[in-house]
Each structure stands twice: as structure tokens, then as C-alpha cells.
Amino acid sequence: MGGNHADHHHAPDGHGRALRLGIGGPVGSGKTALVAALCRTLGPSMRLGVVTNDIYTTEDADFLRRAGVLDPERISAVQTGCCPHTAIRDDIAANIDAVEGLEERFGPLDLVIVESGGDNLTATFSRGLADKQIFVLDVSGGDKVPRKGGPGVTTADLLLINKTDLAPLVGADLTVMSRDAAAVRDGKPVLFTSLREDRGAHSVAEWVTGLVHDWAHHHRAPAPTTSTA
Amino acid sequence: MTAPPDRAQSERAQPERALSERARDDRAQADRAQAGWAHAPGRAARSIHARAAVVAEAGPGGRTRLTTLRSAPPLTLRQTGPERVHLVSTAAGPLGGDHLELDILVTEGATLELGSIASTLVLPGPGRSAMVVTAQVAAGGRLTFAPEPTVLAAGCDHAMTVRLALHADASAYWREEIVFGRHGETPGRCHARFDATVDGRPLLRQEFTVGDPAVDGSPAVYGDARCVGNVLVAGPGFTHPEPGVAPGRAVLPLAGPGTLILALAPDAVELRRRLA
Amino acid sequence: MNAMLLLLADSRLPAGGHAHSGGTEQAVASGAVHDVASLAAFLRGRLATAGLVAAGLAAAAVTASGAGWAELDAEADARTASPAQREAARTQGRLLLRVARRIWPAPALDELAAAVPSPHHPVVLGAVAAATGCSPRDAALAAAYNAVTGPATAAVRLLGLDPVEVHRLLAGLAPALEDTAATAASACAAGESARLPAHAAPALDLLAEQHIRTEVRLFIS
């Protein structure tokens, strides 16, 4: 029995496999909506897989399946034993297993999105699991959140501030958020969006497309034939 | 909580335990008297070693013939149908010290159903009692082994061993029920080991222990059940029940060619219902 | 006792163990485990059954090779009637094997991966123990330790129990862990994998089957 997947697991340097994109952020900030939006926009041109880590097991996966944005078989749910941050940071084995399982069943893939279970501002993805990560905040948490920083806000490759449509209602000043985020993020990009209004998350999709092309170029994976909407 | 949890728990259980131990002693005395009465004088003092056997062979026209039917009291075998045998207990027990064996052979294409008239009450005695059942079923053979439950009386110390060897094309329906004492009785000790193989490969290996303080009453093992039972359905000759789970019952497809019905229950009647 | 054994048994070993409760989540949901005393009874029973079985298999895996891998894995299958538990054991085994091959590369681990893609966890644990220079008794002790510490941690998280109280309970189980390891190692020394401990835990089987059918769960098992 030579052809088993324990023997086929990918080299840690990422050669020959899809880009792994982590999406983290507090509960209710719009992580699952972002995953759905990315699937909607990127799905037609990229080979995608999604791993969800919702604390209530399959709830997120079910949401995505119902949304009909991706073949349900390509969505894999991982339970995290009450500790969503452990599963993406300290002990990533179950997530790696889920990612590799998707690549094995549907590969080659261009992009695998790993959505963390909702957690706090200190949660970030291990570099052993995610090559790039997006941290999602929403304005209803208050405009002071970017200033407070935390590893998610300061180190994520992209900071996405969602629900801008609510800013006037909750008294959040987007200018302040933008300025504070820039101050703690050392030039790394920040995007503002309202996923309720932009159901395709087009600005984020464009950013992701750039990453996937770079990844394919550097890791000799087959390049996706693509443009974002 | 101030005391370590284990000690606190055992302290709470103390008065109850003292009572049940007294009740157990009384009942054990009665059991010894009954065993002596039921069998020959001096029965309780002398252990029995007995080995019974049944061989079912397919005769001309595919009809099963029982070519061997060897009783060894207290294991008395009675043919109760063309392919059916019942164990008729002709003495109380087994008692501590007794060693009973039953050998079953179902040859190619033959069918055998084995049941018992009454439940087996395992009683204390000088030493450990043992019941060893060895069964082999050849290709195309079909064995039903469905005796009445084994009831563990207070103070007993019993070992049950089953070795079931199936050919790949053989079929078996094997039921085992253990009842933890009669009504209100704290059982003695029991160790049961069940090994089923198909063509020499392991299908199911299970041990049950009763009377080990780590296991008795543990929510991981029996919980508050008063009996445990299994039905192993193996091979193509029986309908395998649909997998599922219900209170006190689960139907478990095994990794090999078999299905296990597993049940825990408050009493023997309910146990049988759950194993059906 | 050696440093490798400490690393191998440590719950911080990143091999996916943190998301398994070994039936505790369902036992909590059903009310069977609800405080430190009921957790103690749960863990003692778990150790005497599933823990002893895992310890025996792990001890035997220390000296396994060649055709022995598939044989031992089949012995684990025959001792795990519940499909939900087989799946949990194989998932954990696969993850541990993958992680261990990076941490402690060894020909025996490659051989095991080739023979059985997703082996039962105790089989992998024993193989890894051997790769790190541990004895069968060490491997059995690690398996026994795993059998109670993961569920204990799950209970702390799910019930909000005092973690110090629960660790005191675990400390109280230490002699039982040693006994379990000794029993497992001597059963394994007899050399016949068919005769390894096979203690069933019907309640754990029922809990596992109920758990896997539960819509809302936080743990994989």
C-alpha cells in the first residue's frame, strides 16, 4: 500500500500545493460572510477548498453549503474542542489534515481558505498552517479596536474592517480607524467594506487573486486562469 | 470540596456498603445450603470438572445431523428440534471451583441453534469457577448461540471464556448477557473474555469485568446499569441490523464482517428487549 | 522516565489531541459527568478499560515491524466495536504519525505509514515511543496518561471545574496509571498480540455513537 496520504504530505516549504489563506477575527465580524463572498467571486476562476473551524462544529460549514457558493464536498469542518485559537496556532494538526484531505480529494487546488472559529484579538494563524492571513474586524466593536492592536490587527497580511454601513449608527469614525490601523500595521494593507452591500467582496478578492498568482509563480503550482469579476 | 473526591465518595457510600455486605453474607449462606441440597451431598465441598460437546454435521440432502451430543453434568444437552439443542442445567451453579467446558462444532453447511432452559446462576464456592465455550463454524455453517443470561450472585468469582472461530463463509448469531446480581444483590466478581475470529483474523475481542471498584458504577463503563449484553451477528447467513443508537443500545458495524448489538439495562427483561 | 517520554505524553505535542474529549463531552451533555466526583469515577473506569487496551497496544507497537503493523492495527480494530471510536482513534493516529515523522524521523514510522495509512492512535504512539528510545512500559504509560488527561481537560473546559481540583484527581490516579502500564507491559511481554487486554467500556461506546450523531459539538470525539 504505497499510495497513502501520509506519504504524500506536502513539504513544509509549500512547493506543489495551494496557497493557504487564514481568515480570523472576533465572533460576528463577518468571517463566514467573507468566505462566502470570496467563493462567489473567485469560485468561477479558481479551484477552491474551504476549512471551517466554527466552535459549534458544522454551523459555518452548513451556512456556506446552504449559500450554494461552493460544492459542499469542498467544505470541510474541524472541531476545535472549545479552543479555536489552539486549533489555528498551537496545535494545527487537525486543520492541516483537513487542508491536505481537500487537496488530496480535489487537488490540485489554487487556494484553500481556513476560517478560524470566532475568537479574540490575540488569535493569529500559525505560519505552519496559513501562508497569508486576513483579520476581520467590524466597526460595531468601536473605533478604538485598531488602536488597541493585538497580534491579529498588527500582523495580519490584510486587515479588513467590515460593516462600514453601520459606522454612522454606532458612532464609529472610519478616519480614526484607518489612521490607527496604519500606525500599528507598518504599511501593511487595510481595506474597508460592507459585505452586506458588496456581496462579492471585490476589493478583497482582488488582493487574494494577486496572492494566488504570486504563490503559483513561486511554488510552480499550475497558475489559475482568472480575473476577478 | 475539602476531602479528595474519591475519598469523599467512598465515605458517603460506607453505610450503604455495610448493609449490602450483610445482606450478601445472608444470601450467600442460603445459596450454599441450596447448592448442597440441589446436588449430591458434599457437592459444595467438591469441585466439578465437566466437558460437554455438540457436533452438527450436514447429512445427505443438506439436513443437519447432531453426530455428537455429549452431556457432562451439570452441562446436560437435550435435542429439542432437528437443528436445536438446549442446555439443561442439572445442578445449581457453577459454584466456585467448578470448571465447565462446552465444545461446539458446526461443520460445513450445517446449522445449529443452541439455547438454554434457564439462566445460569453463578454461586460462590472454594475457589474460582470457570465456564469455557469453544465454538468453530466451518464454511457455510450457521450457528445460533442464545442461552439465557448469566446471573452473578453475591460472593461469586467467575471466569467466562468464549472462543468463536469462524470460517470466512460461516455465520453466527451469538448472544451473551451478564446480570449483576439478583434483585437488590451486589454481585461478586466476574471476568469475561470473548474472542471471535474469522479465518484466524480478529473480528471482536472484548473483556468485561464486574467487581472491580474502578469499573463498577463508572459512567464510562456500565453507568448505573444492572446488566450488560451483546449480540454478535457475523457472516452472510443472518440479517445484520441497521447501525444506530438508542438509550442503552447501539448497533455497531465492526471493522470486520460483523455487527455488534450492545446494550446496558436496569434489568434482564429490558436488556433482552434492547438486544432484540 | 526520560525526556522524550515527557515530550511524547505532553498535551502540548501539536498532534490534534486537544480537540478530543474521549466521550467526556457526551457524558457531560447526558449529565453522567457533572462534578469532580463523577469525573473521577468516569476517569477510573476509562483507565481500567480503554486506557488499559490502549496501553497494551502501545506497548506491543514498540517492538512491532513488517507485517506486525497491520496485524496490530487489526487487533486494535477488534477491540474497538464502535465505528465512531475507530474513526477518532484513526484520525488521532494519522495526525500523530504525520507530526512524529517530522519531529522524530525514523524508518519504522515510514514503514508504519506505508503499511497502514491511518493507524489506530495507540499503535502510532508505541511506534513513536520506540523511535524516541522509549521502552514498552514507557509507551504503555504514555497511552494510559493520554487516556485520562485529555478527558480531564475537556471536563475542565466544559464544566468550568476548578483545574487544581481536577489535577489533584489526576495526581490521585498516578498509582493506577503505573499499574495499568505494568499490566499492559507484562501482557505484551507474553508476545501474543491476540492476548493483549481487550477491556470493553459499553458506556463509552454508547457515548461515542451518540456524540457523533449530535449536531452541536465542540470536540471531535
From TrEMBL, chain A:
Keyword Chaperone listed? The answer is: yes
Q: Record-annotated residues binding GTP?
A: G25, P26, V27, G28, S29, G30, K31, T32
Give an example GO molecular function: GTPase activity
Keywords (alphabetical) are: Chaperone, Cytoplasm, GTP-binding, Nickel insertion, Nucleotide-binding
CobW/HypB/UreG nucleotide-binding domain spans which residues? 21-191
Location of the protein in the cell:
Cytoplasm
* Top-rank taxon: Bacteria
InterPro entries (alphabetical): CobW/HypB/UreG_nucleotide-bd (IPR003495), P-loop_NTPase (IPR027417), UreG (IPR004400)
One GO CC annotation? cytoplasm
**Its quaternary structure?**
Homodimer. UreD, UreF and UreG form a complex that acts as a GTP-hydrolysis-dependent molecular chaperone, activating the urease apoprotein by helping to assemble the nickel containing metallocenter of UreC. The UreE protein probably delivers the nickel.
Member of which family?
Belongs to the SIMIBI class G3E GTPase family. UreG subfamily.
Annotated HAMAP family: UreG
What the protein does comes down to:
Facilitates the functional incorporation of the urease nickel metallocenter. This process requires GTP hydrolysis, probably effectuated by UreG.
Record protein name field: Urease accessory protein UreG
Q: Which gene encodes it?
A: ureG
From TrEMBL, chain B:
- The protein, known as: Urease accessory protein UreD
Q: Which residues lie within the region annotated Disordered? A: 1-44
Keyword Disulfide bond in the entry? The reply is no
Its main localization is cytoplasm
Function, in words:
Required for maturation of urease via the functional incorporation of the urease nickel metallocenter.
Which gene holds the coding sequence for this protein? ureD
Record family assignment:
Belongs to the UreD family.
Q: Where is the composition biased (Basic and acidic residues)?
A: 8-30
**Which domain of life does the protein's organism represent?**
Bacteria
A GO CC term assigned to this protein in UniProt: cytoplasm
One MF annotation (Gene Ontology) recorded for this entry: nickel cation binding
Q: Where in the cell is it found?
A: Cytoplasm
UniProt KW keywords: Chaperone, Cytoplasm, Nickel insertion
Oligomer status and interactors: UreD, UreF and UreG form a complex that acts as a GTP-hydrolysis-dependent molecular chaperone, activating the urease apoprotein by helping to assemble the nickel containing metallocenter of UreC. The UreE protein probably delivers the nickel.
Q: Which Pfam family, an example, fits this chain?
A: UreD
